[in-house]
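Bug #77: duplicate submission created two jobs. Keeping one. Sequence:
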Amino acid sequence: MAKEQDHPNINRNVHPPVVALIFIAIAYLLGRLVLGPFVAPVILRNIGFALTFIGLLCGIGAFVEFRKARTTLDPHGSVKQLVTSGIYRFTRNPIYLGFLLMVIGFPLNSGFYSGILLVPFFALTMNRLVIEKEEAYLEKEFKDVYTSYKSHVRRWL
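Kept job's structure:
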């Protein structure tokens, strides 16, 4: 028997890590087949590695805060508590910000600029498919507390 969804507007078939992986794959294909690889200076490859690492740290920071609050990371699951501490003091969506940094970082580290080209499309996709729906749910669930938090902390950075 399927569990009733807390977020009826969030499509259970949309999994943010899968969306991020699809964009990373598109960046690789775009870079390899359309734009072609370039000989990236070591500094650009290192920047790509650093962005990927920072993206990973964003996700770890979010995981730690969710565990402290004893609530779920699942965007489809039941949220028990609003998390506003740690990395959530700087961004409302550190996991999605981390994915965005990886969409840039992985391809750049491999010698492709294509990840940078996909940033607006990734951000738009995440906003429309996940973030707007999550925010509507959080506003309904936590009312003025979430509205106040939202007015002080930006969606991405």
